[in-house]
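Notebook p. 47: complex prediction with succinic acid.
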Amino acid sequence: MRNYSDVLVIGTGIAGLCAAIESADLGLNVFLITKNNDAGESNTLYAQGGIVGPGEDDSPDLIYQDILKAGCYINNRDAVRLVAEQGPAMMNQFLVDRIKVHFSKDEKGGHELTREAAHSVRRILHSRDKSGFALSRGLLEVAASHERIEICTSMMALDLITNCHHSSDHQEKYKKKKVLGAYVLDIKNRDVISFFAPSVIIATGGVGALYEHTSNPSCATGDGIAMAYRTGAELINSEYIQFHPTTLFHRDSENFLITESLRGEGAILLNRFREPFMNRYNKELKDLAPRDEVSRAIYNEMEETGSDCVYLDARHIENHKLDERFPQIFETCRKLQIDIRTDLIPVVPAAHYFCGGIKTDLDGSTEIEGLYAVGEAACTGLHGANRLASVSLLEGVVFGLRAARHISSGDRRNDAVLLDTIPDWVYPRREECFDSILIDSDMKTIRTIMWNYVGIRRSKKRLERALADLNYLRHRVEKFYKQSYVTREILELRNAVETAVNITKGALSNSKSLGCHYIPDKGESRE
Ligand code: SIN
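Predicted complex, structure tokens below:
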């Protein structure tokens, strides 16, 4: 089967949805695909904190300085300037005016602003602690009812189609590489469909699921990143994996984030002896120090005190602020017999956000013609070595919209003659050898390697060991992939190991300890 559109968007998080809606508003026909059964499932859905907007006593210059400082000053300054100067207004026009996202209001009817780590002022718009849910639902409603958007669920892109890789016309091999679409697995029917589009936007999110502990849902397996890499796109800043300081530590809970805005509203961290400790690590910002510093401090306290977790103390915050402002955390903890008004909340750091990704310019364009990447899968250099809280949703809006506008201002068209030279996906003769035990155990191995050797604290020795183990695993997985029927699980495993190798190589090739790439014996610096 062959499908044709002006734009193919892969991924239904905030960046993909913004790109799809804006493209459609500009008159382009869009296929929007997701491997998930439910189009709402994405990292965006689980965002709690919120999105950077214009704060009180705020200025683009202040936002610029905060993003740079958190990023250890290695950010792409043009990207930071663009987001600081244009981001809050773009967010307001698109999310508030066009999509009608409901953000929490203060008593005067304005947007209530919260604070998160390393922000100089209160500037974060939120929908209590369900910001991602509000955004995701609002955007999906608009996308689903848009006459120019077709949303296809349970559809997993397997590989990008290019003239050089796939055309039966040998002359195409010698021309500039351009993306023509993607081969997509229809997960339910086990069929591979060709989706052709002159512009393809990768918005597949991040890589948290490659780690044993993560705040991300299990679908965050680095699919778009691996796929772009196989096509020849450049990956940059892969060593910078951000660990969120506080996810819930409980036997019966997995991947549940405890938003930083709880600390923004006054909660503090305690070690196993119930002592506050952040003042020993950052005298000025204490519990609101940049994330990389807080995560390392927690890791250190856990190690030094021989504990599996630390604690968040929110007991001194006014009661109504806890259940009304943080209903999701309140309820989730309550179900686990933790009353956050009277009990401490056990927390551990977990992999949260990929600051690196597919290299793009400020329009989301990669070096491969027709290929765009936006959101967490992409890297404009905005975050440098560590992302400032609540900038990722803003990044999704800014670059999602810019990619759509760039595509619409160009003149890319499906080239019917060229597309005729692209064969349908050819199923090699494959054995039916889906073995979920093998796949699960390989995935667990990747997660253990990444957590222990490519995690919060790194060393050359650990990274070298990780790369050797991952390379061996990659070889085995590739063999397995070639022998078996394609399934979502096998594709995820293949992408996960490819991405893990790339992250580890990135970490090994940078001996400077900075931000989220922490190598203690190399010293530490934020400059
Ligand atoms: C949080 O709510 O703590 C996460 C927000 C973010 O990652 O920007």
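Notes: The CA atoms of residues 371 and 524 lie 37 Å apart. The chain has three domains: 2-239+355-419, 247-348, 436-509.
Next step: compare against the earlier run before touching the bench.
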